[in-house]
Amino acid sequence: MERVKELSINTNSTALLMHLKNGCWLLFVVVSQQADDEEEMAKKPIKSLFTVKLTKYDETKKVALIKELKTVMEGMNLVQAKKFVESAPQVVKADITKDEAEALAEKLKAVGAVIDMD
Fold it and tell me: DSSP letters of 74-104?
């Protein structure tokens, strides 16, 4: 007659020990990878808000960058945009969605900006 014993090794593993008719023992170990994956996902927070930062810029495209910043940053005039660009690194926009951050980064990269997204 076969006997089966279940042994819990740790939270993710279980061993089955089976005694066969001929006197031999068989050992099966079942490891649950799903538990590890769930723990990993719980540890990593999903980032939903991003910050777009102007780190530096191409001097030859400075005027185009100033004009683009004036249009994307509400309430900024040309003088303020010029000072903003010249004092890089600066945060262009903070706490925006990933799609907004990527779109803004692409616009600014097209006019010579070097962008860092956090």
Answer: TT--HHHHHHHHHT-SEEEEEEE-HHHHHHH
d(CA 83, CA 105): 19
Amino acid, res. 60? T
Record the tokens describing residue 17, joined without a space. 């020990």
- How far is Cα 53 from Cα 89, in angstroms, rounded to an integer? 7
Report if pTM > 0.85.
no
Which DSSP symbol is given to 36?
H
Please state, in angstroms and rounded to a whole number, the distance separating the CA atoms of residues 113 and 78: 17
Which tens digit of pLDDT belongs to each residue from 77-107? 999 999 999 999 999 999 999 999 999 999 9
CA–CA dist 55, 118 (Å, integer): 12
